Amino acid sequence: MNLSGEQIRALLQALRCTRDQELTCDECLREVGSFAELTLEGRPIEQAYDLVQQHLQVCGECGEEFALLLKALEGLLEPQQ
Amino acid sequence: MDRANDVWIEELRQPDPRREAALSDLRAGLLRGLRGALAGRAGVDDAFLEDAVQEALLKVLDRLDTFEGRGRFVSWAMAIAVRVALTAIRKKRWQGVSLDRFKQESSSPALDVADHSLRPERAALRSELLAAMDRVIREQLTDRQWLALTAELNGMPQDEIARQLGSNRNAVYKLTHDARRKLKAGLEAAGFNAESCFEAWER
Fold it and tell me: How far apart are CA A25 and CA B166, in angstroms?
């Protein structure tokens, strides 16, 4: 089985975002909670989170975790039933 | 759940029973957040959520020293809980799938992308790009790097790739990061920068 056109597109997209220095998944995990807060509050994203944003673009799993984290934190901010 | 960050840290470092109260509050918050975020997912029931939160609490306690105080403590802990829960879901989804299934394609990176609807000049550009990719993959990437990258492109989670390679998620990320860097540099040397690669792929 060879790579499909969609997989090649995904690979090229990842290459587009690839940098020499990137965070590992554990390094991203340390920062992603506060990054999620800024995102939910609609506050400006500081330059310090540049590498977090880049990691979330190239790492599908951390990206999926970030989307779920936003939902989980939204749930926490809602009043308890 | 409305403790200040330093109060969370201090209380969670205390012996029981003071720690127990903080742990209980944190457990309730993580459970509530995860329950809301994972509502409707197949295989997610109360037992699953309880197990995920319990494992997350152990990780939180183990990593208290690594919390740097940016943002709320609860957001940091929730990020850990989300990772624990999704890792368990992914593990179940990929149970029984061997990395070996990607070995054939990883040892033969020929790309099946014939598209007869393309204009000749665009088809020629794609063909050149694919030939350059093929060359870089064969000459510069290790078998392990290409295998990990191929598995990832097929949706296999890094935790599962790591488990089958006898490694860990960070190491797999570094493996695929190195593969991407080599591929990007090799394509640039062949005259394809990241933008022109993408352009070659879009109609």
Answer: 17
Q: Cβ of B175 under 8 Å from any chain A Cβ?
A: no
Per-residue pLDDT of chain B (203 residues; tens, 9 = 90+): 678 999 999 999 988 787 999 999 999 999 999 999 999 898 899 999 999 999 999 999 999 999 999 899 999 999 999 999 999 999 999 999 999 888 865 544 455 555 667 777 778 888 888 899 999 999 999 999 999 999 999 999 999 999 999 999 999 999 999 999 999 999 999 998 877 777 777 75
Measured distance CA(B26)–CA(B61) in Å, rounded: 11
In this complex, the residue of B110, B111, B180 whose CB is nearest that of residue A15 is B180
Cβ-defined contact of A76 to B74 (cutoff 8 Å): yes
Q: How many whole angstroms separate alpha carbon B36 and alpha carbon B75? A: 15
Cross-chain Cβ contact B66/A30 below 8 Å? yes
Whether residue B179 lies within 8 A of chain A, CB to CB, comes out as no
